Amino acid sequence: MPKEGILDPQGRAVKDILNEAGFDVKNVRIGKVVEVEADFLDNLNTMVENYIINPLIEDYEIL
Amino acid sequence: MKIGICVFPGSNCDYDTYYIVKDILQEDAELLDYTTRNLEHLDAVILPGGFSFGDYLRPGALASKTPLGETIMNFASKGRYVLGICNGFQILTELGLLPGALLPNDNDKFICRRVNLVVENVFTAFTKKIEEKEVITLPIAHHDGRFYAPQDMLEDIEQNSQVVLRYHEENPNGSLNRIAGVCNKSGNVVGMMPHPERISEDILGGLDGLKIWHSLIA
Hints:
Helices cover 33% and strands 0% of the residues of chain A. Chain A is an all-alpha fold.
């Protein structure tokens, strides 16, 4: 997900459309789901922080 | 001078840049495959514009993890010259060689036009033949050029004079402090969103790009 406080123009465009359609949404932010299939569970955070996200601009959650 | 031009899958300004180096500057030019780790014989490396790896994940993210991307870290640490143009700038920030990140333009549009830029730092490898505060005109062509850095990093960048180019009297993409280009602390690595290779011949409508190239080979 884009970090809190960072402008997300895609989210803003979707919010505008939803508002126009009559849905009273306050904010929309758009992130990504990266589905990874693997047999290991160790070093997952290291892998994500070094290869999947940019910690300067994005937060993540492992589900 | 021996100058390498990176070719990642999806680079599309690689041959324009090669042409400038070889035919306009008449320097030794070499295209570098993204799998190479051999840069020892080069004085400078240019990461050209384009959409490396289709901008998948984030612009520049995947290119920064290739053998060539990783080798550029070591190349830069020896003080050799590295220039990232547009997508090349995005790759250099993803590598961590340059501070900050490039986010989608605040209007979420692809912007393709000329802009005026103030040259703020004339001590880098790519601006040393330009006058301080000189205004130059270069084209931009990007969707993800909004320079961003967290507040403390932004203050460091300004205090260390790492801003190389600033948009003049406008802010086309919502960049913080109107930043269009930055350098590392020693000035041998520069990244910029504008495309000097597209405006280095009269027939293409201008020569301001040459100021960047002449700084490099001076």
